[in-house]
Amino acid sequence: MSDEYNLNNTQYPSLYEASQTLFRIISERLNVNTAYVTRRGKNEMTVLSSFNDREDIIPEGYSVEYGGTYCRMIISDENSAMTTPDLTKNLLTSQLEVTDQLGVKGFLGVTLRDREGGVFGTLCVMDQDERSFSEEDIQYLHSLSGVLSHMIELDQVSYNMAYLNVPIIPITPGVSVLSVQGIVDSRRSDIILSHVLQYCTDHQVHTFIIDLSGLVILNDQLPQALSDLAQALRVMGIRPIITGITPEIAKHDLKHAQLTTLHIETARSLEQAMALIGFSLTETTN
Asked: For this UniProt entry, which residues form the secretion signal (predicted)?
């Protein structure tokens, strides 16, 4: 890989961000519009992550029945790869419904393998124009498929940990606290939103405190989940209060006013938040 690309993992606190950087590198190196990875399900192939440079060809979540995919040809090939300069002229691919739907020509794909060597998906590139890929290009994509395979496995572990890591703490009947820790990406946002709303319903919560003291701001943006969660809580008749606003978050909000426009009550600490709703924390002595 060219030295002009510095893929120091410490620069990427988000696996999603790292994969997007790899896709951009692949797109530039192979001169293609689209790069994406798929995972094989029971009967279909689904796009886990994608990058489209000039034209949006393959969206994330795009799913095709396994028998009608290029991925089937990649997986069944003895070299774990499949390439053609023009999908519309290739005898095997021209008859597939997906070829007509996508309207692309140049294609190259290789397998993704887990640590035990099992094939679980593919890494593919495609372009609207004809593209001829060399053996060097195929080996290049194979080398990056190993990196992406590892990232996907780590991402799955991260997803499972995020699902478990929605630390809601009951304070008193009807009052609970969520401590937001680390990075909140789009997938974790969905998990937090659904988990909190279900929790509030199950426990008859009337006041919900969101503590941001452990939040890590990624890409200079507060998670959209904060706005979505606050609005959903209000719709449910639940009072949201935000605490733990760090200097970093406060400086960010001076520029972007993401918290200000939410018009949510804020408190410096949990103790102050409890005082807002008529409770006080007292120390007992033995």
From this structure: none
Which residue has 């090939």 as its token pair?
Answer: 77
Least confident interval from 4-8, 27-31, 80-84, 98-102 = 4-8
**List of domains in the chain:** 9-162 (3.30.450.40), 168-276 (3.30.750.24)
What pTM was computed for the model?
0.55
Task: Give the pLDDT score at 257.
Answer: 77
Q: Is the dihedral of CA 76, 112, 185, 252 positive or negative?
A: negative
Distances (CA, A) of 122 to 62, 81, 254: 14, 9, 44
Give the 3-state secondary structure of residue 11: helix
Phi, psi of 7 (to 5 degrees): -105, 60
Q: Is 87 exposed, middle or buried (0-12, 13-18, 19+ CB in 10 A)?
A: buried
Six-digit token pair at 186? 């789009």
